[in-house]
Design a protein that fits this description.
The complex is a heterotrimer. By secondary structure, chain A is mainly α. Chain A has four helices and no strands. Chain B is mainly alpha-helical. Chain B has one domain. The two termini of chain B are 22 Å apart. Classes of the chains: A mainly alpha, B mainly alpha, C alpha/beta.
Chain lengths: 73, 252, 309
């Protein structure tokens, strides 16, 4: 236990990055009108439960914007 | 004449779109986790594997840098590479390139801005990563510097510049963001598989990743590292010139 | 006469397929010039060559009397361009985007602030200055597209199908903006919507399969039509009577009957008018209206394009 408290200042930035990125992705998810796969719930789970790369996956692949749409046509 | 307005737009774009956040998070995350895992991985393994007696030598700052190099040349670099591949092709597909090029901007100027923005981005996140790793290593191990550290860092930095140019080149040549990202990943994979052939590592930009690890183990590879850096600069320059040449003649 | 755009034997060859085939354009300065043709006739390719996006296979282009050479950005000072689907940066506001465009032309800061404001007003986006372009409707994007094309006070703007993707409301707004530019800049725009052309253009060129099939003023083109239409509206009995009286008339090419309406297609319009008045007079018929229908551009367009095919 002592070890963890001792390490805490070093670990906090790591935790902040993960939580920050997840919150950012969740905000984008909420604002998105359309997501790939059409399931916002699924993406929310991915963002929350897949550390670091869940949010990134959503931001890069999950969002459908005009540019992506026209490319798909 | 070089048009700074477009460079300004490129930089703002990185900040206002998720690009910087993603690349930044990954680089910082792995810069922190490197020294930490070097320090505590042994303990963690020992904790979970209680039934067997394992003994490791105590980790030092060398293991910390080892972690740093392997993370930054693998996962961090792949994320950077893939995030950068869309830069030109996305503007072509979206059609924004027509609006920009019918202003007073030459194609060369547009592409140089993109390259410069990519280089600036990599330079800043690389410096931040090094500083973070440096700080954590110092806190956890009380020692940071070793023989050849600066040269090693520089060669890894040049590898990042090389991949920026790969991203630009593919973005100019290919017609879809997805293809550019996939091919970029393929090139990354092939160059890394080639590092098995240690004899050509000094000519392979990705060989830097292996060379700096050898340096850490105490093998003096200064000479090879220098040749590797020169090769990387050379290949990056060729990629840059080729990108500009192709882009200037391209049908849009 | 000075020409804003002049091309000489312009050719674009895509692997043996001639998208544009020896096109000679002469767009007089200050006109609104319609560039017509069916889909795939080479309109977009021509516009891309005129704006320096694509290199011509052969032939030459002059913009405002200066030769345009592919790869040299010299003519950009004179031109503005709106592609068919303009792509913006979604994270920017319209003000950001217009400011970027102005900076790319090195317009001094103070002047640019005023210019951006003016343009946003002209295209009716003053209320949305700080919204993100990502939230814009197609019509708003198209209007912003016109504003960005005007940022450098160009002598000529090229618009590629500026209204074809819009709903009727958006179409009207954009056409009104374009019409408002009359006399200020030369407008060269491609379209396949003929009613728009008829309303605002001074001159048109019609191309088909990369070749010019017709080039003239709207009036002249309409005058080319060999037939006229005369329409008479009255109550049904009167129309029946008129129809029976002219049924055998050799000078009337075609009679179309529709309840209270009769449409006569004739070559000699004056003869037809006299004949109708005579019938009305001698039979004491009261009519609601008599109209001489002008030939529409659409009739002529269909004719020339189909002739060529």
């Amino acid at each position: 236990m002592d070890r963890i408290i001792e390490l805490l200042p070093l670990l906090i930035p790591l935790i902040l990055i993960q939580i920050g990125l997840a919150i950012y992705a969740l905000i984008l998810l909420k604002r998105a009108q359309q997501v790939r796969g059409n399931s916002k719930l699924l993406w929310a789970l991915v963002i929350i439960f897949v550390n670091l790369f869940g949010p990134i996956l959503f931001i890069v692949l999950g969002r459908v914007d005009d540019a992506v749409r026209s490319e798909d046509e | 004449m070089f048009n700074f307005a477009f460079l300004k737009k490129e930089i703002k774009e990185m900040i206002k779109t998720p690009k910087l956040i993603i690349i930044g998070s990954v680089f910082v995350f792995f810069a922190i986790i490197g020294p930490l895992s070097a320090k505590y991985m042994n303990e963690l393994i020992a904790m979970f594997a209680t039934d067997i007696e394992i003994s490791f030598p105590d980790p030092t700052h060398i293991q910390s840098w080892e972690q740093f190099y392997s993370n930054i040349t693998s996962i961090s670099m792949i994320v950077f590479l893939i995030m950068m591949t869309g830069t030109v092709v996305a503007e072509k597909n979206k059609g924004s390139i027509y609006l920009i090029l019918t202003k007073n901007v030459t194609r060369t100027s547009l592409l140089l801005s993109k390259m410069l923005a990519g280089v600036l981005l990599f330079t800043s996140i690389f410096i931040i990563s090094v500083l973070i790793s440096w700080y954590y290593t110092w806190v956890l191990f009380g020692q940071v510097v070793y023989e050849g550290l600066m040269l090693s860092l520089f060669s890894v930095y040049m590898l990042g510049i090389f991949f920026s140019m790969i991203a630009i080149f593919l973005s100019v040549v290919l017609k879809s963001t997805t293809h550019a990202a996939l091919l970029a990943f393929a090139i990354y994979a092939v160059l890394n598989i080639l590092t098995i052939l240690s004899s050509i590592n000094l000519y392979n930009p990705a060989g830097a990743a292996t060379l700096v690890l050898n340096q850490l183990k105490g093998v003096d590879v200064t000479h090879n590292l220098i040749i590797n850096i020169i090769m990387t600069i050379l290949i990056s320059s060729i990629l840059a010139v080729a990108s500009v040449r192709i882009f200037k003649k391209q049908e849009l | 006469m000075q020409f804003a755009v002049k091309t000489n034997e312009l050719v674009k060859d895509f692997n043996g397929l001639k998208a544009v085939n020896h096109l000679n354009l002469q767009v007089p300065f200050g006109t609104i010039y319609g560039f017509l043709g069916p889909n795939g006739s080479g309109k977009t390719t021509t516009l891309k060559m005129l704006t320096g996006m694509t290199e011509p296979t052969s032939g030459s282009i002059e913009i405002m009397g200066e030769p345009m050479i592919f790869g040299k950005q010299k003519s950009q000072e004179h031109i503005g361009f709106l592609p068919d689907v303009p792509g913006f940066y979604d994270w920017m506001s319209p003000r950001d985007f217009l400011t970027l465009c102005g900076e790319l032309f090195h317009i001094p800061k103070q002047e640019l602030i005023i210019r951006v404001q003016e343009l946003l007003k002209i295209v009716g986006l003053s209320k949305s200055v700080n919204k993100k372009i990502g939230t814009f409707s197609r019509g708003m994007k198209q209007r912003l597209g016109i504003a960005q094309a005007l940022i450098n006070k160009p002598s000529i703007i090229f618009l590629d199908e500026p209204v074809s993707a819009l709903d009727p409301q958006g179409r009207k707004e954009v056409m009104d903006i374009i019409f408002g530019l009359k006399g200020k800049v030369t407008v060269f725009f491609s379209t396949h919507i003929l009613s728009d052309v008829e309303r605002i253009c001074d001159r048109v060129i019609i191309i088909s399969e990369g070749v010019t099939v017709l080039e003239d003023t709207i009036e002249n083109i309409k005058a080319m039509s060999e037939t006229y239409k005369l329409e008479v509206e009255a109550d049904e009995n009167a129309i029946n009577l008129i129809e029976s009286l002219i049924l055998d008339d050799k000078n009337i090419l075609e009679i179309q009957r529709n309840h209270q309406l009769i449409t006569l297609t004739v070559i000699d319009l004056d003869y037809a008018r006299k004949r109708i008045y005579e019938i009305l007079h001698t039979n004491s018929i009261m009519v609601k209206k008599i109209i001489v229908k002008e030939p529409t551009l659409e009739d002529i367009y269909m004719k020339v394009v189909n002739h060529n095919v």
